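User: Show me sequence and structure for the first protein, then do the same for the second.

Assistant: Starting with the first protein.
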Amino acid sequence: MNPHVVGDGDGAEAQPSYDAVTETATAAGDEAISAESPTIVVPVANLPARFGSDTSTEVARVSHEPTAADLAKGLVKPADGRTRTGTVVAGDLLVTVNSADGTVVAPCPPAQRAHPVLIAGDASARPRATGGHLLERDALCDRLRDRLGQGRCVRLTGAPGSGRSSVLDTVAAACAGLAPAGVVQLSGYRATAADLLQDLFRATHHAPGYRPGRDLLPGLLHSVGAIVVVDDLEFGGSALEELLSAAPECAFLVSSTPDTDALMAHSRMEEVPLPGLSRQASLSLLARMAGRSLDETERAWAVDLWFESEGLPMRFVQAGALLRHREAAIEAMAAGLPTPDWDGTDFSDDQGVQPLSPTPGGFDAYVNHHANDQEPLPDPVPLPSVGESAAPAVRIARGLSDPARRTLRLATALGGECPAAPHLPALIDVGHGEAALDELVEAGLATLVGAHHRLVDGVCAMLADEWPVAVATREAAQHFAWWTGHASVTEEQIAAEAEVLLAAMRADREAGRHAKVVLLARAAAPAFALALRWGAWERALRFGLESARVIGAVAEEAWFHHELGVLALCVGAYDRSRAELEASVALRAALGDTRGAAEGRAALGLLDEAGTLHSGRPIVLSVGGSTRSGLRRRAGMAAGRAGQASVTRRQIAAAALGVVLMGGLGSAVAFGLGAFQHGDGSAAVTVGPLSSPSATASASGSASDSAPASATTAPSSASATTTDQPGAPGTTPTGPGTTPTPPGPSQTRTPSTPPATPPSSTHVTTPTSPTKPTSPSTPPTTPTTPTTPTTPTSSAPATGAAGSATAGASG
């Protein structure tokens, strides 16, 4: 073993000397990993605070790579994270993670139940500097602080690179002391609503190893009064409303991009857009990042950049890096020194640096070459065009130092995720990892997300074509698998690097190295489970299951199915849990693994009990999903109260059909009763309005006189809704070719025979017994010319009876 120390001491022993490092080769083939692997030791003083002072800083480079045949035969048993075990409490369940045959769940004994204690929030949970005074953001920050002080919720919406994170950090620092529970800063990067609720619970309660269920979280967070700042939130709509309703006493300040789901109509959160900087502010920011004032050429170039970028601050941070690199290149040319390769011909590190000057020989040769020109001396390093400034990642990368360029290449291979500084010596031979990461941040290529760095949006896509071969990730899975199994590395430290580990799995899967994906997924999954990062736990299990199926590692595939089933059981997704557990039992039974199959059947038995006990509770469909509601939930609650199993869909459909039929029958009965009974006991016919008051009076008198006669008349058929009488106003002829006689001032009006089924447009009522009509003040007159009644479409007997009654009433 040949350790190499990288530190800040004054002696020569503390200086890096990679040329003196000689790696000891391990045995080839399928032998176990030797404990004497080459190691690089990094002092604790150089580590960030999140790694802790008692953390071992040894990182190893392992030369043995597992093959698909090794995993399929079970020959590879490295000392990695798969040996990590522990217990956590999830709701009412006691979860023993990574036991001999997989994770085991059982009802939690009363003595081991958690008792959460409310604590004050820690505003420094995400240490981050804002980088000084923010240009043109003071008024916005003051307005956001006032709204949060009033208990209101705000979503800050801005394009990538608009400075949302800097605004949130400034507002969070200004809100210290406003809320009883303090300020809680969370990262919403690739986090679901369930993950954020768990993070909020952990920040405000002391309950190590406890993850409350989705039905218990609203009760625990109901009395928490904190200002919650969430950066890079990736969801909206109903999921955001679930987050807000779970903590009603908290004031939320979140940031999102414009393509995030819109807010609900009646949400208590308001949206505030984040505009770009003005032209003057953009030029001031560029001068600050360049470290000097701008000349006329640079100001004109900056104005064009401002028009193209719409004032995004990140674009001017990157432009400042271009100006610094350009100035360094000009100074190197003037001194006759070699400069970094700016012509973009090759990015390989082994080729070395090339002179940047158009004329070989340095700045003097360049001046002598243009000495006889009458025009002004051309710029030796011209400014990039507007098109190049719109995608500056490639040109900025040419001016970086060698450690920063290696770190940038590794992050590009990992999909934009940057490993922490202690991992860089083992992965890419970069000793001062913190300095390399800081250089990427100053150049506008990387940003801090939570506890780790990642490339800004668009940089990874720009550099993917320049570095197509992901050589740097070939040993990443092996290194991280060893690191997760180190005794001094805690679950929280592994969870802080969750996105990096998942990115390494994704890179190996895309490169076809499925054996390494299975190895790293098996090593990292137990740590994610114990750290209660169950969103990352599920993603790691999915990666491992897919790769195990590809290489034919049946035992590993059964293990991943079992773990996914247990995870679904803990979050309440019972249908998905049953499918995963049954698949695990079938695979293990086919392999002859009786103990593993027994563990799966035990989990299925607990699943049956949980489905019966919780049939009346909302069922969580996924880690970040919503609960069931509506008719099925109410039916399940009724069955739970009666002590029965959940109703089936067929029973629900039959019950719904019965409700509809009974409603229709009740409506028919109500219409029938209304057709034969009027409110005041008098016969009436609802007709159209009359043309004159005299006609109205005549119609009223005729109807009263003819009521006894009409009461003794047999009802007509359903098709004859109104019997047309001669000279009656507002009637419609039913026979073709029949022309009704227009009503006169002396015509009378008689009600028709009530139909068996009342029409929708005419309301006809008939008294139950004949009532003596009241004599009108003016006796009605009879029509001068009787007309023959029109024959309706109904049967002849009904028409005849109606006609006889009408004639008797008229006489």
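Switching to the second protein now.
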Amino acid sequence: MQLLNEHEKIGSRVWARPKRVAFLVDDAFTSRDINTIVAYCFKHLGGRWNAIAPITSNSIAPAWEKFLVAIDADVLYSFVELSDSLKESLNKRLRPSRIIEANALHHHKDGWRLSEEEIGGIQLADVDLPYQPTAFSRFTVPQITIADFDQRDDDAFNFCFRNFGGYSEREWNAFNLSAKDVTLLPAAIAEPEVFLASVLPSYGRHFPIYFSTVGYGYSHFGANLRDQAQEFEIMVGDSIHDFIYAWNRGITSLYSGRRRAIWLPASALQKEAVAGLVAQYIRESLPDSSADTTCRILSYSLTEAELAPFSASILPKLGRPTTHAQLTKDAACDMHGVTLAGCPDKSQRYEFAQSDTLFNAPLPESFNEKRLGQQGWVVEVELEKPGSGENNLFRQNTWHLPARYLVDKKFFERQTMSRVTLRGHLAIEVKADRRNIPIKIPTVKDLCDVLIVEQNITGSGDQMKVTSGHFRRIGISSDGQFFWNILKLFGGLKNANKLLDDEGWREVLMFLVGEMQDLDSIDALLTEFKKDNKQGKTARKLAQALIDKPEKLLYIHHGKILEILKKAGSVIGDQESDFVTNRLHSLLSRNILFQGTASRCYHCNLKRWYRVDELKAQMTCQGCGADYALQPLNSLSFRLNELVVNGFKRSGLLPVFQALFLLHRESRNHLLFLPQQDLFDWTEGKDKQVTDLDLIGILDGKYFLGEVKSSERGLLSVDIDQLLQIALELRPNFILIAAPAAGFTSKVKKHYEPLLKGLADKDIAVESMRLEWTKTSLPWDFVKPPGSNSE
């Protein structure tokens, strides 16, 4: 179950980027405190990509939690004291490398102070900025700044500072820009209408706010950030929620240099000139192709009636459809499907061995190595395809980990600040003076162990403590051992797929397997046995079904194989001889088939089948023990390995193979899986088996569990209450229910309704898969509970 075989190495793409921080604030946060966050972002590499979200000490609104998932922050910096239960929820849902809580020492009489050392970002003054003042450059040196950087808290300052940025003279001097590269605007023109009138003639040059996009912007990440926004939004109001929305909304369109959001204080609505200047700013901000773009005027703090006059006055000046609305308090900024996960064009390649490797983390581009110390950044690692194994299949050269909490700890030491990003990359926090990081490549079992075991998390960062929850471990079941050994016989799932997906060869194998045991009926009887109070009649049925019948090993001659293959269309004309011979040779060499003949004892008349290497001139009867002369051989025949016979007949493994074939066929990138596993919990001081899981794996970075059955009775035998409990505790991305199409009856759908309803709002999908042998891809069937939204 290794990802790598001995002496193999796994390649990777590695790149450095700024840390992403999400600041968490509550209603007690003031306007001056917001400016403290904004000032931090403007001074640090990639700071404009940091997000701000409202929260309470005990909860976060679902819409804002969804927003933070898309932001995919490395560090959560909370100005609110969070409860242990909320921290545990944030750790599991958002997977930050750490959570920092500001304490009373950070709060002064004039507001909050940020602990920049704890975040450990890189200041822009320590970076050789890539902006060059050339006529052909996409990015030019900023031409506008605000010299008066006193921390004021009035509408004029807030409008200019929050929308366009500003540095004190000392700060912009640290960028080593000459005076001719910077236009200083006197503070006297900082009223919104005067400022807009001043900057519009020079639009196209960059404002100070764009300095803070360096390191994680469009110039580094290409088209991974798509311009999904369909509106330009004017956010109006003086509450912190109004500005937070506008700040976060700008993240979705920063890469283009044409922002899709602007914030206005409520007082600006009273000034006639503002509407015309804002309309002109919007027209110049949007590309020519966006004539149908809607302008939305939004506010948390102002009513629709208060917004209506401004909407009416801007409509004729804008020449675009205009709407206005008041947002509810818990309405979050919509990311429009955009996430901050990406792969840069400039990356380095590293190779890791399965044993521990000391990884020397690269520096961010343009970072000045002379300023070493507590500054830090993030290095992302995208793993390449490892050597093929029996339980991993890859379609592309790269693969992604499930974005789950603690998966990264299988690669790094516990104290390493690391995480798995939404894109499925490993992300490691690096400090300038500690760049050598030990890394090791885990097994598929290691990855599934951390996914399957519920984790209770208290604390964060260095203070984090992790304990096991209800479920303690998984272990390979007897059926799983059968599956694993059969898989090794075939040399992996791909080889098994090539054989079983061919109708003719599948018929040959099923001929040699013989009559299949009705395992689903036995499962149904077991379920009935548990519910039957008297249990007598059911017990007799169950005992009868479980009685071993005398096993008859079947064999097949070469001519019968050709007959079956021709009937199925697996061989055509002249190709049949070489094709069949080569395939039979392959099956014989892997011990899937054995070659031999049947021989009858002259003394007791017992007829037995013997392999070629067991044949000799004088045979010894396995019945009476007498010796007899081997009769003349007319032809040899073939018998299937008993391991495969028992696996398909008694353990019901054929549908499991089929489900994995279809999963692989529908995968875009990769499939990693474990054979059937027993799930154990901790009861009264010892392990207790709870149930068995037919499928556990990772499909294209998504973690899944599955139930695989061969009939309607099998599907009805599933304990829905137990499966729901397991799903809620283990939190897979989806539950897969697989069976032949005939099994999905209305009775079965009704049986599974409690599972669908119980998981409808838990971000756990339930998907059904129809098991049909076909050479064309089958569509996936997404099952939704009655009345749910079909997104």
